C-alpha cells in the first residue's frame, strides 16, 4: 500500500508542468464527500456481542462537507462538517433481549491546507485543523431500560488529513479522495471551484 501511495505521489509530481493551477489566490472550493467503509458500523455489533439472531443494522454516512478559501496560491483555510450514524437492532431469543442501539457522530471544525502542485487539473494537498466532535449513544426498545438512557461525549482536538488528491474534470468541477483522521479513513467525493 505504501509503495502504491509513494509511486502515485511521484507520478503526480511529474505532472506539475502547467502554469495554471487548481488553487489560486481568491478562489473558493466546496467539497461533498462520503466516507468509504463506515468504521462505526463494525464497532456496534461488537459492543452488542453480535448476537446471531440480530437483524442487519442501518448506517448513514459518514458524509462530509468542506469549504476552503485560498488566501495564497498554495494555502487555503476553511471549515468542515461531518456526520455519521449507525443503528443496530439487538435480538437474543434465549435471553429474551430486544432493543436497538443507536450511535451518531458529528464533527465540525476549522481547517488549513497546503497545496503542492501548480497544475490546472491536479491538486495534491495535506492539512491540519481544529475539530469539535460530538458522539451520542442511546438504546431504544422494550429492554432498553437495562442500559443507561444515553451516553454523549464532546471533545475538541487536532486532526490531520494525511493526504488528499483532487482531479478537475472541468474548470469548476472535480473529484477528490482524502486519506484522513476523521469519520472515515478514506473519503471520496465531488469538488467545486468558484
What does the model show?
The chain has a single domain (2-193), classed as Porin, CATH 2.40.160.20. The two termini are 34 Å apart. The radius of gyration is 20 Å and the shape is elongated. A hairpin with a 6-residue loop joins strand 4 and strand 5 (122-140). The chain is built from 2 helices and 8 strands. The relative contact order is 0.22. It has 194 residues and is mainly beta.
Mean of all residue-level pLDDT scores: 76
Query: Mind telling me which CATH architecture this is?
Result: Beta Barrel
Strand order of the largest sheet: 1-2-3-4-5-6-7-8
Q: Report on the biggest sheet.
A: 8 strands, antiparallel, barrel
The CATH topology label is: Porin
Determine the N-to-C terminus distance.
34 Å
- SSE run: HEHEEEEEEE
What is the share of helical residues? Answer: 10-25%
Number of helical segments? 2
- What radius of gyration results from the CA coordinates? 20 Å
The CATH class is identified as Mainly Beta
Count of individual beta strands: 8
Q: In one word, what is the shape?
A: elongated
- Provide the low-confidence segments as ranges: 4-19, 48-54
Beta strand %? over 45%
- How does the helix and strand content classify structurally? mainly beta
- For this structure, the quaternary state is single chain
- The number of domains is 1
